[in-house]
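Before a colleague's protein record goes any further, I have to sign it off. What it holds is a sequence and that sequence's fold in token form. Would you go through it and say whether the fold makes sense for this chain? The record follows directly below this note.
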Amino acid sequence: MKKYEDALKELEELAQRMESGDFKIDTIKTDIDKARKLIKFCRDALTKTEEEINAIISQDNN
């Protein structure tokens, strides 16, 4: 199972390569697909963590 920090680091590296123009035309589609999956993974992890924090806060307020 991938960790959020690892996924974010990998996403940042992909973004840096794309922004610097250091990518190969043959792999750009694969890189974009990978970035899309990493973004979804990170978004889902953040959403889950937010829900867990809100549940803890709700329990403390009761």
Summary: The longest helix spans residues 28-61. The chain has two helices and no strands.
